[in-house]
Amino acid sequence: MTQLWQPGTQYNIGDEVEYDGARYRIIQPHFSQGDWTPPVTPALWGRMQGGGSGHGHGHGHAQPSKPECHDPPQQHQQPSYGQQPIAQQPPKYGSGNGSDSESDGEGGRRKKNWYDIDSADKKKLGLAGGLLAGAAALGAGVIAYKKHEEHKDEAASQAWAANNWLEEARARAAQFNQFGPKGPYTWYLTQGKNIPQGALLVGTEHSWNLYVCRALYDGALVLGKASDAFKKGGVLGTQNKEVHVDTYEILLGDSNRLRWVPYSGKFSLASLGAQPIEGGREANGTRIYVVQAFHKGAVHPGKVGDGWDSAYIPYDGREKAVTEYKVLCLA
């Protein structure tokens, strides 16, 4: 049965929808978002021949109701680690290079990451594409930047970076939905309080679980924590404050292929003796790694960089420095 397409809905193999008078059949299972309409996501939806009335108005006919804040979170039904993905011929678990794929899906040619482009190119692309206007459509929590007139170039550069990161995050999620895990961990795009199956549990605070998340903020790919108990789902720790976000990537992982390595004091990659999991980048390009630390009776997710005097966790509205912590590494 064909239904009107709606955001905030889990679509699976076999589903058909109608949007703007046209009918579409699903290609890749996913959790729909407001800006992922069928016409603009050909990787997710295939348009069907001769379908629809030709004069509809999309999902405007049926507005989805918002759940109350106390409702239990909806779960993404993407394949989790150790389970078979929804795909006709899924690859065997562990195939690939053991880390996030860098293929663009078109012959294996590697795309540049948002942080690989130099400032001049970012400014040129941002200004030429009019991305300042487009950045507003990314939604709260995807990017935050100061709109001062004297900093238009920098704002355009950050808008371009945010758009590029979000595209990469969507591609990672789509590949995972179709093919399943290709290594010991995956960053998976989600929204709000939707905690996917297979999210790597870091600790428990009071009665809620804490997971690792990341999102682009003010020119940096920032690490933080996620929980269905938080008002927006994700909380980043940056610039000595907590930033609440509702669009973020959450870390999925195979606990049998990852381990927490104890560390104390000033962090040095050379002395770690293991390969840490890179979680993001500072605005200046510094790599940051995933950590966990005990504080106030709970274990919290956090971050550390090479040469930092301590690790940091988002806590109580600020960033808390911790000198005793564990670094997430490949087993």
TrEMBL record:
Query: Record's Gene3D superfamilies?
Result: Carbohydrate-binding module superfamily 5/12
**InterPro entries for the chain:** CBM5/12, CBM_sf_5/12, DM9_repeat
Q: Does the keyword rRNA processing apply?
A: no
Return the annotated region ranges for Disordered: 32-112
Matches recorded under Pfam families: CBM_5_12, DM9
Signal sequence span per UniProt? Answer: none
Q: Where is the composition biased (Low complexity)?
A: 74-85
**Domain Chitin-binding type-3, first and last residues per copy:** 5-45
One GO biological process term is: carbohydrate metabolic process
**One CC-aspect GO term:** extracellular region
List UniProt keywords, sorted A-Z: Hydrolase
Instruction: Cite a single GO MF annotation.
Output: hydrolase activity, hydrolyzing O-glycosyl compounds
Question: Any idea what this protein is called?
Answer: Chitin-binding type-3 domain-containing protein
